[in-house]
Design brief:
Keywords (chains A, B, C, D): ATP-binding, Kinase, Nucleotide-binding, Transferase
EC number (chains A, B, C, D): 2.7.1.2
Distance between the termini of chain A: 10 Å
GO molecular function, one term (chains A, B, C, D): glucokinase activity
CATH class of the largest domain in chain A: Alpha Beta
Oligomer: homotetramer
Protein name (chains A, B, C, D): Glucokinase
CATH architecture of the largest domain in chain A: 2-Layer Sandwich
Structural class of chain A: alpha/beta
Number of domains of chain A: 2
Organism (chains A, B, C, D): Streptomyces abyssalis
Amino acid sequence: MGLTIGVDIGGTKIAAGVVDERGTILETSTVPTPPTADGVIDAIGDAVRDASAEYEVDAVGIGAPGYVDDKRATVLFTPNLTWRHEALKDKVEQRIDLPVVIENDANAAAWGEYKFGVGTGHEDVVCITIGTGLGGGVIIGGRLHRGRFGVAAEFGHIRMVPDGLLCGCGNQGCWEQYASGSALVRYARQRATATPENAAILLGLGDGTPEGVEGKHISEAARRGCPVAVDSFRELARWAGAGLADLASLFDPGAFIVGGGVSDEGDLVLDPIRKSYRRWLVGSRWRPHAEVLAAQLGGKAGMVGVADLARQG
Amino acid sequence: MGLTIGVDIGGTKIAAGVVDERGTILETSTVPTPPTADGVIDAIGDAVRDASAEYEVDAVGIGAPGYVDDKRATVLFTPNLTWRHEALKDKVEQRIDLPVVIENDANAAAWGEYKFGVGTGHEDVVCITIGTGLGGGVIIGGRLHRGRFGVAAEFGHIRMVPDGLLCGCGNQGCWEQYASGSALVRYARQRATATPENAAILLGLGDGTPEGVEGKHISEAARRGCPVAVDSFRELARWAGAGLADLASLFDPGAFIVGGGVSDEGDLVLDPIRKSYRRWLVGSRWRPHAEVLAAQLGGKAGMVGVADLARQG
Amino acid sequence: MGLTIGVDIGGTKIAAGVVDERGTILETSTVPTPPTADGVIDAIGDAVRDASAEYEVDAVGIGAPGYVDDKRATVLFTPNLTWRHEALKDKVEQRIDLPVVIENDANAAAWGEYKFGVGTGHEDVVCITIGTGLGGGVIIGGRLHRGRFGVAAEFGHIRMVPDGLLCGCGNQGCWEQYASGSALVRYARQRATATPENAAILLGLGDGTPEGVEGKHISEAARRGCPVAVDSFRELARWAGAGLADLASLFDPGAFIVGGGVSDEGDLVLDPIRKSYRRWLVGSRWRPHAEVLAAQLGGKAGMVGVADLARQG
Amino acid sequence: MGLTIGVDIGGTKIAAGVVDERGTILETSTVPTPPTADGVIDAIGDAVRDASAEYEVDAVGIGAPGYVDDKRATVLFTPNLTWRHEALKDKVEQRIDLPVVIENDANAAAWGEYKFGVGTGHEDVVCITIGTGLGGGVIIGGRLHRGRFGVAAEFGHIRMVPDGLLCGCGNQGCWEQYASGSALVRYARQRATATPENAAILLGLGDGTPEGVEGKHISEAARRGCPVAVDSFRELARWAGAGLADLASLFDPGAFIVGGGVSDEGDLVLDPIRKSYRRWLVGSRWRPHAEVLAAQLGGKAGMVGVADLARQG
C-alpha cells in the first residue's frame, strides 16, 4: 500500500495530510473545526478531498479525541466533549470513497513517535501526550495496545488524588487535572495571585493580571527565569513524573516518550519530569530504568501515526 | 512436554507440586520456610526432590515474591523482604538437575487462573491477588505481559494516595497499603478502637482487644453481621474497586480476576468491589464493562500457573 | 437597651427583623436581594426602615457573608462573591440614622444559637453552619471569638484535601467543598450517574436526570430510603465529622452545634456526623467528649444573633 | 508571689529550674528521664528538691507531654507514650510540699514565648513547637486557651492528609507526621535513597547510608547547600506553612510563633514556612497578615512558661 491520509482533529482546526510509508507528509490541507459533530464530519470530508486532489491515496486514518471502540469505527465517549457513540467511520466513509480507520488521537501520536520518531528501535514504549489534557498510548511487542474494548491507555483519567479536582469525565482527581497544559496555567495563576512579587516577568507578558496568564506566557517567563513560571513547570513535572513511575509499575516499558505541546519546552520540563520519575520509581536502585525521552515529531505525530495505522488496515 | 513442578514460596511454608498439562496437581510436598534466602533455596531443592520422587518431571517453575528480571532468573528486589539481586534460577539449578524458570508469584497466579481457572475463554485478563499484600498479573492476547525488564504488573505499588501510608517498598500511599489483608486488619482494629460498641462480635472472636483482631476474625464476624467487620471489608473494597477502575483505563481487559485469600470470602467482598469499580469507571455509561470475577483455584493458582509457565519453557 | 434590628443577607432575599432582648422577633420585613453591593446596601436601608416603622429601635446588626474586619465595619473579602473591602457599616449608616454593627453571618448564627438556642448553658461552643457553603463561629468563655483581625472561625476554608477540589476562595481542598449543601448535591449527582439503579427514588423526584437533582430531592429521597440519597448524606457526614474532630483538637469546646439547612434533616444527618466525629477524635477513649447538638433556631439564628450583638454595641 | 519552679520532662532528661517573675532562671537541676511514669514522678521530686535547696519557692509547674485535664492535674493521654489518666499533680504533691500545676508542654512553651519571648506585646498568639513531634499553644486576649476540657491546641493531630501516614495517636494523616523533626528525617532519608547523587554532603556527615541520616546532619548539610537537605527542609516548610494558613482561618491571631528544635535553624526554615503560609492563606490580598516569628527562648520556653503559669496559680 502506498499513500494514506492522516487526519488530526484539533480544537481550532482539522488537518489532513497525505503521508507516505516513511512517515513523510507530502501535502497538508486544513479547515477550521466546526462546533458540532456533524460539522466536524463534513469538514473532515472536505479536508480529505482537498489533500488527496493530486495524490492517489488508499485509506484514511482519523485521530479522534475520546474513547474509540474495538472496531475502530465509533467514538464511544469524549470526556471533555459531548460526543457519545458517534459512528465516525461510517459517516466519513459516506462522504469519501475510501476505507477509514478511527483511532484515539493519543494512540495515534504514540504510534507516530514509535514508528517514525524517537521511539524507533524500541519494542515496548509508553507515550504520554501533554497538551491541553493528558493522553496516552502503549506499544507492546511492536503492536499498539488497544485493549479488549479499544479503550486502553486512557491515562488522563487514572485517579491521582482521591477526592481531588473535578474532571470533565465526571470523576475527581484525574491525572489530567494535575499534569496538563490546563493544569500548568492553573498553577501559574494560583502562584501569581498568592505571590505576585515572584511573578513580575510572567505578569508582564500578559495583561498584568493572574487571570490573563496563558500557556505561552509561562513558557517564555520560565525561559527568562521567572520564579513562579519555573515553579509551575516543576509542579506539573512533579505530577507527570509520579505518574510515569506508576506506569513503570504497570507496563514496564523500555522507554517513555513525553509528547504534546509541553514537550516542546525540552529539558526545561523533561529534566524535572525525569527527576520526579526517579524519585517515585519503586525499587529504583535495584531495577533497570526505562529512559524518559522527548517526542521528536511535535504536532505531526498524530497525523503520521494514524496515516500509518490506516495503511496497515 | 509432560509433567512439571510448580513451587510456591509462602511466608510459612514452601510447597512443590507435580502438575500435568491440564493443571491437575498429582503430588504435593511442603517444607517450612527458612528465614534466609540461602535456606529457602535449599528448601526448594528438598521440596522438589521430594515431590518428584515418583514422577518424571521436565522442568521446575518457581513463583517468587518480588521483582523478577527479564531472563526469569534473578529476583531483583522484594519490597517486603531483603532479597536484592538474588540469582534464584542458578542456585536452584545447582541443587536439582532440571531447568528452572522463576516467575513473580502474582504473575504465576494470574497465569494459573487464566489457563485453568475462571479466566478460561478470555484473551485479555487483569488479575489482582489480595493476600497479605497486593499483587497483579496481566495477560494480553493470551500471553503473560512481563514488560521490557520483567517487572510489569507490580500493582501493589502504584500510588493511590499522595503523601499516604508508608510502604515496605520505601514509597508512600501504595495501593497495597489500602487494599490487602494487612489493610483489612488495620481497618478493623482502627474501627474497633474508635467504636467498640459496633465491634462486639469481632472483639468476642479474639482476645477482646482491638490489637488481638486477626484476619480470620474479621471474615467470621462479617458473616455474622458485625458492623465493624462489614465496614472494614467495604473500606477494602472501596480501594480495590477504585484501583480496578484505574486498571481499566490503563489495560482495558476483557475480565478482571480477583484472587488471594480475600477472594475466598466470595460475594461478601466481591460485590462491594464491583460496586466501587462501577462507581469510578470513567465513562461508565458509554463503554463495555469488563466483568469482575472471583478466582477459582484458591491457593493453588500460583503452583499450577508457574508449573505451566515452566512447561512452556 | 431595648429593641434592635437584625439583618440577614441571603442569596435571594434580605430580611430585617425587630428583635427584643430575649431573642424574640417582633416584626420582619423582606426585600429581594439585588445583584450589586450598592443595591444590597439600598435594600438593607429599605428593609430596616420598613421593619422599624412601628418600633423604636436602638441599633442595627447586619450578618454579612465573608470576612468582616476587626472594627466590624468593612467586609474585606467574600470567597464566593466579588465584594472586596466594602465599607458596609458607613454606607448603611448614611442611609439610616442608627448605629450599625457588621458581623460575619456564620458568627451571627453561632451567637444566636449560643445565646437563645441549643447552646444555652454552655460557655465554650463551636458552631458550624452547613448551608450552600460551610461557615463557622466560636464562643470562648461566653464571648464571640472574632480574632485579632476579625476573621477567625472561617472554617469553610481550612484545607481538608491537599490538591483537592477548587474552591471559590482560590484555594483547593477546602472543607466547604466536602461538607456543604453544594457538596451534597454533587455527591448525589455523581452517584446517580454511576449507579442509576440505586437512585430510582431520587431521580423520580426531579426531572429524571442526575443534573436535575436538587437538595430538596435528596432530603426527600433519603427519608424514603433511596440508597444513593442516604449514601450522599453519609458522605457529607463523613467529612463534617472528621472536621469536627479537628476542631476538637484545636478549640476543645464543651459542645458543637450543627446548624444551617442541612441540620433541618435532624438525626438523618446528625447521627452519621456524630459517628464520624467519634471515629476521628484523637484519644477518643481517654478524654471527655463534647456533645454534637443540632441547632434549634433554624434560619432565624443569624437574625437574632446579630441583633443581640448590635444590642451589646 | 516570688520564685517558682518550672519542670520540663524531656525524652532523655528532666530539668527543674527556679524562675523569677521576669522569667529569669536562677538555678537548674537535671536528672535522667526514667522509663516508667512512676519513675518520672520520683525523678521530678528529686529535681525539684535539688533545684529549690537554696531558694524559697512558692509553687511548681510541670510541662508534660500529652493531654492534660481541665483541673491541670491529670495527664489523660499521651499520643506517643503509654500514659493514660496519670494523676501527676497528686503524685508529685505527695513527694514535695508545694502546690503543683500541670500543663501541656507545648502550651507551656507558648506561654513562655508569649510572656517573656518574641510574643511580648501581642495579645493573640498561636505558637507551634516543631520538635520530634508537633505541639501547639494558643493565647487569646492575653490568656492561655486551654479549652473546656483542658485539651485545646493539640495541633499535631489535626488531619492534613486523608488516609495519610499512621500516627502514634492511632489516626492517619496527622500534621505531626508531615511537619516535625521526625518527618524531616524521613524526607531526607527518602530523598537520599532515591537520588543519592544529590545527597553527597548529607550522606558524608553520617555513616554514608540513608538510614544513618539524623536531624543534626540535615541541618548541617542544608547550611552547606546540600540539595537533598535543603529540599527536605522545604518539604517540612511546605506542610508547616499550609497548616499555619489553616490556623489563621481558625484562630486569626496577631502573630504566629514557630518554636522547637527546628526553629533553631532560623530563616533557613522560617522563610520557606512564611512563603508557604502566604501561598495558602485564604484571601491573602484582602486581609491583614499575622507575622510568622521565630521563637526566642529556645529550649527554655517551656520551663519559664510553666513556672509562670504556676506563679499565677
